[in-house]
């Protein structure tokens, strides 16, 4: 009996937001494929598109749409759907799941002429709760990576998964059966038969009249381009005696037997390898499949993007009435931010670089601006709730021009989003020794605080690892919350130096339309004198990645040092005498003015972060501009010291030179 295959060409996800890459892959892969399909009537193929990819073909290559329409009408190809912006479905609210699927279905129907009956999932990221949404959107089947399926259910046939009275068919996809680059047709078919003989039981529980074994292979655009150039493709496409092809529609029309199975939450095996140790590939030997939530818990900035996305999604869903045009535009920006490639690379499995995340933050900020305008009612507010699911409240400050999130972990601002034309300035990474020649044992945000021993302060200035910085990695507690006055009072405690001297830091945030004021009260609770350096960091994350900023920094700094105005280099140090610092963001046209109530020391440094992107070889993916104000503190037993820092923000065009 011939081996029957359902070949799937997945959406061109990695190129879907880059017109140049979409066009390149069209010319190199899709155009030759259409010519081949038109001349080989017995070759059947299933094709999946992302919304931006199919829209690009419709606009730039209408001839390809006409050909797809013709091939589809002959049942030689089947077009499957999914989310318009290829989202990670388990992360979305049900309203967004169905909205993205319906938007994609409408596009396929208007271009190809037939509504999709099946779909693929970004990274095969699955959860059983999706069954209800998929069925309500008219989906009859879904392709999932075979690594998610328990081995006892791998029987060369579709599965059927049920949840709360609804069901969907599942085609396991075997990436290990994709033809190798130099593999002959005979070698490939022999490998398939060997594999099939191992997973198919001798006595199959279905009647041959209604059952025919089938194997599904899902190709990326790059994989299918290589496959078409191989000797194996040339052989199997010419009516091979050992191989035949089908589509899900044609197969399901004949086969009526499916294997009931429960598929636990999980994701593609290549992604799972990056879910155990940060930025390292590790085989999962625990017996429990990692989930997308495990993945996000491992990568802090990706999780913060997810939290921001859910927050905006709730704002959009709760907006009743108002301007429908703006609400629709807000939903569109939200869905763009939900693109799965903003979280991880589907081909390699690593977290997406900062460039992708910041692009998503911009879309979410624009979505919030539009939904505020749609609602026509906005009140500045300060609220607290557990938005990241760690059991501790975060403080969400919604101002007219910006949003800020204050975390009890480190008592710092972990997100700073500007509503109009802005990204997240607090989305800085922390260094990892393996990639960055140093390790940060704290999260880099705005107003991250350190109490450092005098003998270790030189190491801090040289950006070397300091393992026991007090307060920056401490858990603060809430002492007071004044929502009407936009004030938060936090308190943190720690033991200083090897002598374990108890110290306390009270930290008061006050938010206004022009900026943020933070008051510090440091108390020595030990019976002996305390000598240390107290440093406050503001870490400005890279938010723009245009070619212009590959050669020069996004940020430039001026300061008043001993009553003299100076233009500072990227790396700068002054031990005292700094009264005003002005950080200019030339990309988003903003000025950040930092004013301590007492002259301080200043340390500025540009810190680059290397991470794996498309291989194990790390590359510089982002940078952070660190501005640290510091003071030499001498406190007698039981005494306190007060410091205040004011951060104000203004448009670049209104920049007034410091004097």
Unreliable stretches (pLDDT < 50, length at least 5) are 201-207, 655-659
The amount of beta strand, in percent, is 25-35%
Main sheet summary:
14 strands, antiparallel
Counting DSSP E segments of at least 2 residues, the number of strands comes to 28
Taking the alpha carbons of the first and last residues, their distance comes to: 86 Å
Rough shape? Answer: elongated
Description of the structure:
The chain is α+β, with helices and mostly antiparallel strands and 659 residues long. Helices cover 28% and strands 31% of the residues. The protein contains 17 helices and 28 strands. Strands 15, 16, 17, 18, 19, 20, 21, 22, 23, 24, 25, 26, 27 and 28 form a 14-stranded antiparallel sheet that branches. Strands 1, 2, 3, 8 and 9 form a 5-stranded parallel sheet that branches. β17 and β18 form a beta hairpin. α1 packs parallel to α3 (62-73), α1 (19-39) crosses α7 and α12 packs antiparallel against α13. InterPro entries: A-amylase/a-glucTrfase_C, Gal_mutarotase_sf_dom, GH-type_carb-bd, GH57_Enzymes, Glyco_hydro/deAcase_b/a-brl, Glyco_hydro_57_N.
């Amino acid at each position: 009996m011939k081996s029957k295959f359902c070949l799937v060409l997945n959406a061109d996800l990695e190129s879907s937001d880059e017109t140049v890459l979409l066009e390149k892959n069209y010319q190199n892969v899709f155009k030759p494929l259409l010519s081949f399909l038109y001349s080989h009537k017995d070759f059947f193929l299933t094709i999946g598109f992302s919304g931006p990819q199919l829209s690009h073909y419709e606009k730039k290559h209408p001839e390809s749409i006409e050909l797809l329409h013709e091939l589809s009408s002959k049942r030689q190809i089947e077009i499957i759907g999914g989310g318009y912006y290829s989202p990670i479905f388990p992360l979305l609210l049900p309203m967004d799941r169905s909205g993205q699927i319906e938007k994609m279905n409408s596009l396929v129907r208007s271009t190809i002429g037939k509504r999709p009956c099946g779909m693929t999932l970004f990274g095969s990221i699955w959860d059983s709760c999706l069954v209800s949404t998929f069925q309500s959107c008219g989906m009859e089947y879904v392709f999932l990576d075979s690594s998610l399926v328990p081995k006892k259910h791998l029987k060369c046939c579709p599965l059927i998964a049920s949840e709360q009275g609804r069901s969907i068919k599942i085609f396991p996809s075997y990436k290990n059966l994709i033809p190798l680059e130099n593999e002959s047709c005979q070698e490939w078919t022999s490998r398939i038969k060997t594999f099939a003989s191992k997973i198919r039981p001798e006595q199959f529980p279905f009647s041959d009249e209604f059952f025919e074994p089938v194997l599904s292979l899902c190709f990326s655009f790059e994989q299918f381009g290589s496959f078409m150039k191989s000797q194996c493709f040339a052989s199997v496409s010419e009516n091979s005696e050992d191989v035949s092809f089908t589509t899900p529609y044609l197969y399901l029309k004949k086969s009526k037997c499916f294997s009931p199975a429960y598929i636990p939450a999980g994701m593609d095996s290549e992604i799972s390898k990056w879910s155990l140790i940060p930025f390292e590939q590790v085989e999962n030997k625990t017996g429990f499949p990692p989930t997308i939530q495990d993945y996000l818990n491992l990568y802090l900035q990706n999780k913060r993007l997810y939290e921001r996305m859910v927050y905006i999604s709730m704002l959009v869903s709760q907006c009743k009435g108002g301007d429908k045009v703006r609400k629709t535009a807000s939903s569109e920006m939200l869905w763009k931010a939900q693109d799965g490639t903003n979280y991880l690379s589907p081909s390699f499995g690593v977290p997406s670089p900062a460039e992708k995340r910041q692009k998503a933050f911009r879309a979410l900020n624009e979505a919030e601006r539009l939904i505020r305008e749609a609602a026509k009612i906005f009140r500045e507010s300060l609220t607290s709730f557990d938005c990241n699911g760690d059991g501790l409240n975060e403080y969400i400050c919604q101002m007219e021009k910006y949003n800020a999130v204050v975390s009890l972990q480190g008592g710092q601002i972990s997100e700073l989003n500007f509503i109009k034309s802005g990204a997240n300035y607090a989305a800085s990474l922390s260094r990892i020794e393996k990639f960055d020649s140093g390790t940060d044992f704290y999260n880099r945000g705005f107003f991250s605080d350190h109490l450092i021993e005098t003998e270790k302060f030189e190491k801090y200035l040289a950006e070397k690892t300091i393992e026991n910085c007090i307060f920056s990695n401490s858990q603060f507690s809430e002492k007071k919350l004044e929502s009407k006055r936009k004030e938060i009072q936090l308190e943190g405690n720690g033991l200083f130096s090897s002598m374990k001297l108890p110290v306390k830091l009270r930290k008061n945030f006050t938010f206004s339309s022009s900026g943020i004021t933070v008051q510090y009260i440091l108390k020595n609770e030990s019976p002996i004198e305390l000598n240390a350096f107290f440093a406050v960091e503001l870490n400005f994350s890279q938010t723009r990645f245009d070619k212009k900023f590959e050669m020069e920094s996004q940020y430039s700094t001026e300061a008043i040092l001993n009553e003299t105005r100076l233009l500072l280099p990227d790396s700068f140090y002054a031990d005292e005498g700094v009264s005003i610092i002005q950080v200019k963001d030339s990309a988003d046209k903003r000025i950040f003015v930092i004013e301590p109530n007492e002259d301080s020391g200043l340390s500025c440094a540009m810190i680059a972060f290397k991470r794996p992107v498309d291989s194990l070889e790390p590359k510089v993916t982002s940078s952070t501009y660190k501005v640290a104000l510091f003071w030499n503190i001498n406190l007698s037993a039981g005494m306190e010291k007060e410091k205040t820092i004011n951060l104000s923000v203004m448009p670049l065009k209104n920049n007034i030179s410091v004097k």
